[in-house]
Model the fold of this input.
Amino acid sequence: MRNLLTFNANSTFTLDIAVNEKCVIAGAHVQINAISMFFDKEHEGDVLTVNWTLTGNTALDKRIMRKLYTNDAFKMRIVQLLTANGISAASAASVRTSVAAMQEKGRASFDAINVGDEVVAYVTTMQKAS
Done:
C-alpha cells in the first residue's frame, strides 16, 4: 500500500489508486481515472472518490454523475480495485454510496469509513517503524 500513499508537507496525505479504464455509465463510455481518499492533519478520512473525465455534455455529465455513485456494477469494481491494492475484503465491501450533495462533476463520492480506518492503521504502523 505504501506506493499508493502521497504525504504532503502540511501533514495531510492521500491514497491514490490509478484506474485508467473505461466503463459504460448512463449509456456513455466514461473514462475512470483514479480512486482517491484524502486524510487531513489528524489522519481523518472517510470519503472515497472515483475521479472521472467529463464528456463536455452537461446533461450527460449530470446523468453520469448520478449513475456513477449508484451503479452497483461499479461499486463491485471499487471493491475489486481496493482489494487488489491491499485493502481487506471486509473494508472494501463496506464502501457505501454517499449523499447526493457530496457528488460533483468529475468526482463521485462514497462513504468508506472502514477503508479510512485501515489506511490510517497502516500509516501509523509505518510511521512507528521508521
Summary: The chain has one domain: 2-129. The chain has a mean pLDDT of 92. The CA atoms of residues 48 and 122 lie 17 Å apart.
